[in-house]
Sequence to fold (257 residues):
Amino acid sequence: MHQSDSIVIIPTYNEKENIEKIIRAVSTLEKCFHILIIDDGSPDGTAAIVKGLMAQQDFSDRLFLIERSGKQGLGTAYITGFKWALQHDYEYIFEMDADFSHDPNDLPRLYAACAPQSAGNPEGGYDVAIGSRYVSGVNVVNWPIGRVLMSYFASKYVRIITGFKVHDTTAGFKCYRRRVLETIELDKIRFKGYGFQIEMKFTAYKIGFKIKEVPVIFVNRREGVSKMSGGIFGEAFFGVMRLRWDGWTRKYPKIKD
Fold:
């Protein structure tokens, strides 16, 4: 039996080139992580590849799949995954891309940041761990310079407008303790794309959860096609103003003891 306190949620749309490789990479780590794929009706057969792996004995109790019809957005995919993970009693819940822009070898470092603090883990005890591209400089490989600048200054913009002191506000490589997702009112999260990543972090911050940025190196995908669009960045840009207003007017949930 491959028992685990951790689940890695990976949303997919047309990731046939990467999906088996990323699943095998996560599964070979020393710590056991379960994996939940949320596939939005990929016409390239991504879900079929996952089902083939699930039928193998080595993956039958650690790999799971939710299939949705059509592209419904990154944010709704993660909300679906979060609810599933909470229902299945995972303590540590991760977000990760399928295309190896997030290094699976960094998963244990994010886990350690959220695991209880101890003599063997003096840097632990946080509620949210962010795999940060910008907390120790600009750690991005093979991105066009225009995209690097857009991402970097987007995070700067969020910090200036909201007063939120996270360096990489749009990062999509994260670990949450379950109590964070139990406290955040998931059905009230409004944004679908990169705005979703900002809103989740900002909401956790406003509630009072402890956030740790763990430096990682982000590598642009080598296979498959990017799902990025100008609309995604537009949502994030204009949505930040709304988050700032929420910060002044919204009554956020309280952390339960």
